[in-house]
Design goal:
Layout: H1 5-11, H2 13-30, H3 35-58, H4 64-106, H5 108-120, H6 123-163, H7 165-173, H8 182-224, H9 229-240, H10 245-262, H11 264-289, H12 298-312, H13 314-330, H14 343-354
């Protein structure tokens, strides 16, 4: 019997999976306007599923639905408390921090430099830059509303997924039994499993590193007597989600605030603190949370961050390295898996059921 071109395509595993991966990338590109919701849903779902497995590992009798319900009740309570008490304090501290930065630029040391710059820069240019800054602020406010909506939708979607986790897994695996395109769902399952074991692990590790960096930084800032510790802590946490470069990014505003409070002495203290935290992250936190198999040379990390920011904007700084790690795993360059992909076991079960 002559083998058709379509059968040759299905039998060619590498070509078939390459085509499926390109199709997935194309679909995600076409739906890029929903990327905030997609990524946040994945992150929330991954964290909750990981929490369920961790709890049931020690307390196997606790049902997953109870864990999910309690987790989301606690999360809703925390969001309410944050909106009621923390956000007003945060807004107040951000306002004070902004005033401190403005005072820094209006100080005698910087005032002379700004006056010299003003001689060579026309008022028209300054006016245009001011308009661009206002436009950027307006776009940021609109973006905040969009992110807030995406955050809410991601919470809802992740809740419905995790509350019926066993049913969802059972129903999803039923697609592998399809006689028409079971091979397609097997390939999608393959990439989904790889994505979870690379993207999820790296992102979770970076999240834990960011929490540790933020906690230690806030303790050091409180000891130094720095103002607006909560606002600075939030900024450090967001910056710490960016691998390697986050430390450098957070150094600039921290130094400005330190200079406006205590002069060059506090700036030196901030530099020493950042150096110690960066050493701690490099030699202790990264090996602890980020498996040695997922570490990248600093040069590759910065190149990935630059390309990620160019193609994906702010999200690219956060998810650029995990996505790059995922492609390294797909290409077989570097794997983060601790166990083999269970697709073969599933395929055997599907074949037996078909017979």
């Amino acid at each position: 019997m002559e083998v058709t071109l379509w059968q040759k395509f299905k039998n060619n595993l590498h070509l078939r999976r390459s085509a499926v991966l390109l199709a997935i990338i194309l679909i995600l590109y076409l739906g890029r306007s929903m990327m905030n919701t997609i990524l946040l849903t994945f992150i929330f779902t991954y964290l909750i599923v990981h929490l369920i497995k961790s709890v049931q590992k020690h307390f196997s009798k606790i049902p997953s639905k109870l864990i999910v319900a309690v987790t989301y009740l606690v999360l809703i309570a925390l969001i309410y408390l944050a909106a009621r008490y923390y956000v007003p304090v945060l807004v107040k501290q951000i306002t004070k921090m902004t005033k401190s930065v403005i005072a820094f630029y209006q100080s005698d040391d910087v005032g002379w430099l700004m006056s010299q710059v003003h001689k060579y820069v026309s008022d028209k240019t300054i006016s245009a830059q001011a308009k661009n800054s206002l436009a950027a602020i307006t776009a940021a406010l609109k973006g905040f509303g969009s992110v807030a909506m995406s955050f809410f939708m991601a919470l809802v979607l992740s809740f419905f997924y995790t509350i019926e986790l066993d049913d969802m897994n059972r129903f999803t695996r039923s697609f592998l039994k399809s006689d028409l395109c079971g091979w397609l769902f097997e390939d999608i399952y393959y990439f989904g499993y790889k994505f979870t074991n690379t993207f999820g692990v790296v992102l979770q590790a970076q999240f834990l590193i960011a929490l540790c960096n933020t906690g230690l930084t806030m303790i050091c800032l409180a000891i130094m007597g720095m103002p607006q510790v909560f606002a600075l802590g939030l900024m450090v946490f967001i910056c710490s989600l960016v691998p390697v470069a986050g430390v450098i990014i957070s150094l600039i505003p921290l130094s400005i605030v330190a200079y406006s409070v205590g002069g060059i002495t506090d700036v030196i203290y901030i530099l020493i603190m950042i150096l110690v935290l960066h050493t701690l992250e490099t030699y202790i936190l990264n090996p602890k949370f980020m498996s040695s198999k997922t570490e990248l040379p600093i040069f590759y990390t910065f190149v990935v961050l630059l390309l990620g920011e160019h193609f994906f904007g702010t999200w690219g700084l956060i998810v650029g390295v995990p996505i790059f790690t995922f492609f390294l795993d797909i290409l077989g360059v570097k794997s983060t898996e601790k166990k083999q992909l269970p697709i073969k076991k599933l395929q055997k079960k599907v074949v037996l059921k078909r017979k």
